[in-house]
Amino acid sequence: MIRLFNLTFFVFLFLITKANSLIEIDITRGNLDPLPIAVSPLFQDDNSKKNSINELKIKNIGSEISTVVENNLKISGLFNPLSREAFLQKPDIAHLKPRFEDWNLIKAQALITGKVTIEKKKLKVEFRLWDILAGREMMALAFTTVPSNWRRVGHIISDKVYERLTGEKGYFDTRIIYVSEDGPKTARVKKLAIMDQDGFNTKYLTLGNELVLTPRFNPTSQMVTYLSYFKNLPRVYLLDIETGTQEVVGDFPGMTFAPRFSPDGKKIIMSFAKDGNSDIYTMDLENRIVERITNHPSIDTSPSYSPDNRFITFNSDRSGYQQIYVMKSDGSNVKRISFGKGLYGTPVWSPRGDLIAFTKLHKGKFYIGVMRTDGSGERLLTENYYQEAPSWSPNGRVLIFYRETKSNDKGEGFSAKLWSIDLTGYNERQVQTETDASDPSWSSLLSN
Amino acid sequence: MNFSKTFRNIFLIILLSLIVSACATKKTTTKVEGQMQGDVYTGTDTVKYLADGVPDRVFFATNESILTTKSRDTLRKQANWLRANSSINVVVEGHADERGTREYNLALGERRANAAKDYLITYGISADRISVISYGKERPVDSGSNPLSWSKNRRSVTVKAN
Predict the structure, then answer these.
(1) Whole-number pLDDT of residue B9
(2) Phi and psi dihedrals of B41, rounded to 5?
């Protein structure tokens, strides 16, 4: 990872106070009472401020990093970052030893303090998390990186705080790959785009000369697999985000589509359509050996592996309509698992292994839902005119998907946007993108 | 007795004619309202012609790839035209409407294009003159979000390849 990103993160202090703290957050239920947290702007001395302007053209990088943290914590729906105007204690003094009564007064239950220095083209950040009610430090951490990485520093702090307070890994130091859309519905221009999870640092990876669809991350590296209509031949491609190298991997005499990596990153699983029939195949990326997994005259598509590589969930209309199935990864033991009313598509296995997220179409409405891997416990999280293609956050707590609006009879009013929702069904919100967007895929955590 | 039988026959005739006219009325209304039969598009709004009297496209019902009587008629015309123009090769493009998941619709478009291709083959056109491509729901011809627009988009279109 370090090599891929050309990053240098040196963690040189990592102290977690495991003492029985008073604050903890239960993220297994909808959180209607987010934890009040104060994010004191990271302190920066005058000399460092000068360097900050020189290096980054940003005056107060400490404050900017704190804003990244505040925004992440707020978006998670689990925290309520308090207004800085209410803070009584100065950032530098608070970082040494907070006056807990002052922070208690503004109803903060947790406090983040920190310090930033930029020297010799290095960005050094240290931060502390404090339990206000118990009046003690919960965590202290410091790291060094290149100054241009300052937003990632904010994401890493967010992840550490989230992990310390919820007991689960965070999902802030991640990226989203998606399809950027532009133009009229009948001649939509689509490009691959990638951005940080919070919508910043958008980069376009293709020019829009050919139709591209359904990009998906390799969970173990910075590779992406997607469908491209390059030279009007719909084929599955592989893209190295760092080098920009693209290669076709599904060059079969027909259409290859619906690609996804296996969780170990060693295979691509995809559909291959020929003579009106779509079946599921895998390709080993090392030796390029192709294996046929399903063999049925129906449409078999949208395959997704279980995190242990042992099972595959997929979409088939072998019963007459689109339904969700699970089979062993060699194609044996095929079992239908969706039995509710309506059509089911786009099954995708949770990184925790216990759930499958899906799109459901019933009576003209589209739903994003989850069910257990045996099909029991179906829960619909959100209903809308059109939405599909959920992708899991790496900790399995949040789903990102896309939603389209209805156009009028002249075709006006159409838009496509990314949305996210917690597994609990709460905290539904639009994910900011520069353009219209669809087909999101969430990366793994970039650090650790 | 005889009278009552006649009466019953007259009654039946009246009843039948009522049913028939009801059907007729219904048919006209659907046509006026939407140029659709069931949910298959029967209009000519979007249709282009490969040659005089040879429509380029056929339409499908939701989630279906079955060719209607009218579609088979269109494809027979295409086959005749292809037979008369043996130097021309074609691409059959399969499409779906926007009310389905993207990946399934790609497969469905492929299935529809192949349904049309297979029919052309049974009418004597060599398979190597026909290639297929599916665009799923990516290239609608009508951008409205209503049943009529969707019916125009559920189609396979035969285009000249050379």
Answers:
(1) 57
(2) -70, 130
Q: Are residues B15 and B93 in the same domain?
A: no
Q: Are residues B25 and B42 in the same domain?
A: no
CATH number, span A2-20+34-166: 3.40.50.10070
* Segment B97-129, tens digit of pLDDT: 999 999 999 999 999 999 999 999 999 999 999
Whether residues B142 and A411 touch (CB distance < 8 A) is answered with yes
**How many domains does chain B divide into?**
2
Query: Given A186, A346, A361, which is nearest B140 (Cβ)?
Result: A186
CB contact under 8 A, B145 and A258: no
Mean predicted confidence (pLDDT) in A80-107? 95
State the average pLDDT for chain A: 92
B86 at interface of A, judged by CB pairs closer than 8 A: no
Write the residue in B100, B107, B143 that is nearest to A278 by C-beta: B107
Among all residues of chain A, which has the CA nearest to that of B141? A186
Q: DSSP letter string over A266-304?
A: SEEEEEEEETTEEEEEEEETTT--EEE----SS-EEEEE
List CB contacts (< 8 A) between A407 and chain B: 143-145
Averaged pLDDT, B61-83: 97
Query: Residue A448 has what pLDDT?
Result: 57
Q: Is the pLDDT assigned to residue A7 strictly greater than 70?
A: no
Report residue A50's pLDDT band, with 50, 70 and 90 as the boundaries: confident
Decide if B61 touches A, using CB distance below 8 A: no
The answer to whether residues B87 and B146 belong to one domain is yes
Return the CATH number of A175-442, one of 2.120.10.30, 3.30.430.20, 3.40.50.620, 2.30.30.40. 2.120.10.30
Alpha-carbon gap, residue A401 to B101, rounded angstroms: 12
| Containing structural domain, residue B6 | 1-34
Q: Which residue among A273, A322, A408 places its CB closest to the CB of B134?
A: A273
The helix/strand count (H/E) of chain A reads as: 6, 31
Residues B2, B60, single domain; the answer is: no
CB atoms under 10 Å from CB of A26, counted, come to: 10
Contact B39, B61 (CB under 8 A): yes
Q: Rounded to the nearest 5 degrees, what angle is found at the Cα of A223, between the Cα atoms of A217 and A225? A: 60
ipTM score here? 0.92
Residues of A in contact with B143 (CB under 8 A): 184-186, 407, 410-411, 414
Residue A366 forms beta bridges with which residues? A361, A384
Spell out the domain ranges in chain A: 2-20+34-166, 175-442
Partner residue opposite A315 with nearest CB, options B104, B139, B142: B104
